């Protein structure tokens, strides 16, 4: 029994052995791996949680992550945006994405890794930048919101000014973009923002904001997508349109790889700044140490051409800092305006009103004039001591012809003259008239070389003024001796003061004499120049008179020639009239002879005769005892040819005699050339046409065939027949024949 029990127990143990071996085989690698985990640090922090025993999938996953972290990555494959994305805790990334996704705005607010990287930059790594922006937020955002609402644009576009200039109105980029909205010069000109050496309206908050709203509205009308609008605002609408045309893509994120780096980062930066400023308190960006600026009620002072100094107005308002008011007038490039400048409105806080109580506008403007325009105090005269030379001031040097006076006198002075170019006047003539060189004229008026002057153009000429001769010391002494000789009875000079006074008086007299001499010489030169101009004008007048005489002689010769030609034409007309009259007389005689022959014709002849085949006028006249002339006259035949079937009269017509018709026709023929009066043009050798030319009409704008027929009292069918028209359409400038008479 015992052996059987042992045998049965051993067989039972052998049967359960594979079942117990499987957990032991799985437990061995897990224990080995647990022994390789790092021990807890000295601070007592707990080590990472061990994987659950028996979970083979979890063990394999943890092992792969540890092995990958131990292998260093190559620097060439590291993406900074993705690295920042991986460094961000998952909870913060999800929270930022949820917050941005909940924005109810039309402005771009897509969330991705690029946006998260800039959110981290503005809220963690570069917090001071965002805090400086938050200080100026309440000062400028009310202005932005007013104009964005006025132009019906998304209010959140106000954060675009933060991207551009960080709310600094005088910001200027390296390429020249200036102001809160960073306008370039050409764009500012298109938007009517004025720029000169005194004023730049790109730095004016209200005017620049209104111009930016107009520009954004225009860009949205082109692209109809706010992300593309922001890209075009940064890169230019033309560049964005070219990339869209080249790639065929219509979305910013599809065009993302084809844009420059600055434009690629522009939209993510805008979204990150919008998030950072909306959730600044959640990220602890606000602080009691920040110097917040708030919008204030402002007063204005209108200027209309008066010289103005903003620093003096700051002192009048009671501010210790003389440049305090520049933050309310940032568009001024200098701290003032000159006299004669265009109207301008100065802004200052209404809180300074108590300092200006009781001061009227004229007094305030007088106080705010620049220091250079104010009356200067007189320079104190140094005391004169016996035996001591006075300090050489500017007045003393000028009075004694010192080196400064000589330098000032040697400087050339000019007078500005405006000259209007006349017809036929050249640059050389103008230069000779004012005694200057042609090169100077071109430089003063920016004239291109080799191009003629246009009549009526205004030219600026700088004519040198006569310089006053500065007398030398020797001439002064000579003039002094000549002007005031000292008699022998006069006592010598008692002291140096009187001697200096005498020298000053002599020098003044010498300078006055030199000035008068220079003026006399200038008058002589001007008189000589005037005489030369008068002589030149006289010669031009004589040349014009001679030219007019030649033209008169030419006109007289042409008139005589025209009269001769008209006389020849009249003689020719008289000859033609005489010939026509003679022909009419011959026709009348032939008609009378035919009538007499008709009276002698036999009565038995029939009234008409029908021409048969083979007949001719000679045969018919012989058969009926008539003459060919009678048959031709009675039937009004142009020739002796007849055709079969033609009816011929063998008697004179009963109603209208030949003797009455022939003279009437002859009279018409004789009167025709008298009614037609040919016009002979002076200087033409062509004889006038005997027959009048066909009458034509040139089609004018708005003409139709019906209007033309009504105007000339002709039917439309007649006009179409004369001009071979297939329809009633006529073209502008087409010539149409009209029936004569």
TrEMBL record:
Transmembrane segments: none annotated. Residues 659-696 are annotated as: Disordered. It comes from Hymenobacter aranciens. Belongs to the transglycosylase Slt family. SMART domains: LysM. SUPFAM superfamilies: LysM domain (SSF54106), Lysozyme-like (SSF53955). This is LysM peptidoglycan-binding domain-containing protein. InterPro entries: LysM (IPR018392), LysM_dom_sf (IPR036779), Lysozyme-like_dom_sf (IPR023346), Transglyc_AS (IPR000189), Transglycosylase_SLT_dom_1 (IPR008258). Residues 417-461, 607-650, 695-738 form the LysM domain. CDD domains: LysM (cd00118), MltD-like (cd16894).
């Amino acid at each position: 029994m015992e052996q059987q029990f042992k045998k049965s127990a051993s067989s039972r143990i052998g049967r359960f052995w594979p079942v117990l071996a499987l957990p032991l085989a799985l437990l061995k690698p897990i224990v080995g791996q647990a022994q390789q985990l790092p021990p807890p640090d000295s601070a007592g922090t707990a080590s990472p949680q061990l994987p659950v025993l028996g979970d083979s999938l979890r063990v394999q996953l943890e092992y792969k992550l540890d092995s990958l972290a131990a292998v260093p990555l190559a620097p060439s494959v590291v993406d900074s945006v993705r690295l920042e994305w991986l460094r961000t805790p998952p909870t913060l990334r999800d929270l930022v994405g949820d917050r941005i996704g909940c924005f109810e705005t039309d402005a771009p607010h897509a969330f991705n890794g690029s946006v998260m990287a800039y959110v981290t930059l503005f809220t963690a790594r570069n917090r001071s930048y965002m805090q400086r922006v938050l200080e100026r937020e309440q000062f400028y955002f009310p202005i932005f919101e007013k104009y964005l609402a006025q132009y019906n644009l998304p209010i959140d576009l106000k954060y675009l000014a933060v991207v551009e200039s960080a709310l600094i109105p005088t910001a200027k980029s390296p390429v020249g973009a200036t102001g809160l909205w960073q306008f370039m010069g050409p764009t500012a000109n298109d938007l009517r923002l004025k720029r000169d050496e005194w004023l730049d309206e790109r730095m004016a908050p209200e005017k620049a904001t209104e111009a930016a709203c107009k520009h954004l509205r225009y860009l949205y009308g082109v692209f109809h997508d706010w992300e593309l609008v922001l890209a075009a605002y940064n890169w230019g609408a033309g560049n964005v349109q070219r990339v869209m045309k080249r790639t065929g893509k219509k979305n910013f994120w599809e065009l993302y790889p084809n844009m420059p780096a600055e434009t690629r980062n522009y939209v993510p930066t805008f979204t990150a700044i919008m998030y950072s400023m909306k959730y600044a308190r959640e990220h602890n960006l606000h602080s009691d140490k920040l110097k917040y600026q708030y919008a204030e009620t402002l007063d204005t002072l209108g200027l209309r051409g008066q010289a103005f100094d903003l620093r003096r107005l700051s002192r009048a308002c009671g501010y210790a800092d003389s440049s305090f008011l520049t933050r309310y007038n940032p568009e001024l490039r200098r701290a003032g305006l000159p006299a004669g400048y265009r109207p301008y409105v100065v802004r200052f806080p209404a809180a300074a009103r108590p300092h200006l109580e009781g001061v009227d506008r004229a007094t305030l403007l007088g106080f705010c004039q620049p220091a250079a325009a104010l009356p200067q105090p007189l320079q104190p005269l140094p005391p004169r001591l016996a035996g001591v030379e006075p300090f050489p001031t500017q007045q003393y040097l000028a009075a004694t012809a010192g080196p400064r006076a000589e330098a000032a006198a040697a400087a050339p002075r000019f007078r500005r003259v405006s000259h209007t170019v006349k017809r036929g006047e050249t640059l050389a003539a103008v230069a000779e008239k004012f005694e200057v060189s042609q090169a100077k004229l071109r430089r003063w008026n920016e004239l291109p070389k080799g191009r003629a002057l246009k009549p009526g153009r205004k030219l600026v000429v700088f004519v040198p003024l006569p310089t006053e001769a500065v007398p030398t010391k020797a001439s002064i002494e000579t003039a002094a001796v000549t002007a005031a000789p000292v008699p022998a009875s006069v006592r010598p000079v008692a002291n140096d003061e009187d001697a200096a006074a005498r020298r000053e008086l002599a020098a003044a007299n010498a300078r006055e004499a030199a000035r008068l001499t220079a003026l006399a010489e200038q008058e002589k030169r001007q008189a000589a120049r005037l005489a030369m101009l008068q002589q030149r004008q006289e010669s031009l007048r004589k040349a014009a008179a001679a030219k007019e005489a030649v033209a008169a002689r030419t006109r007289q010769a042409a008139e005589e020639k025209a009269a001769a030609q008209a006389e020849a034409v009249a003689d020719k007309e008289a000859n033609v009239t005489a010939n026509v009259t003679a022909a009419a007389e011959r026709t009348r005689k032939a008609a009378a002879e035919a009538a007499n022959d008709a009276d002698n014709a036999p009565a038995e002849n029939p009234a008409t005769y029908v021409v048969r085949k083979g007949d001719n006028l000679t045969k018919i006249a012989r058969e009926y005892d008539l003459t060919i002339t009678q048959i031709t006259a009675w039937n009004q035949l142009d020739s002796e040819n007849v055709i079969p079937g033609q009816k011929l009269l063998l008697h004179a017509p009963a109603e209208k005699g030949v003797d009455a018709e022939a003279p009437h026709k002859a009279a018409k023929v004789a009167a025709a050339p008298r009614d037609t009066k040919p016009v002979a043009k002076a200087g033409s050798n062509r004889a006038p046409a005997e027959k009048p030319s066909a009458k034509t009409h040139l089609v004018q704008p708005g003409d139709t065939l019906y209007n033309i027929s009504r105007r000339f009292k002709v039917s439309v069918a007649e006009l179409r027949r004369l001009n071979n028209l297939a329809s009633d359409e006529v073209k502008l400038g087409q010539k149409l024949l009209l029936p004569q008479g």
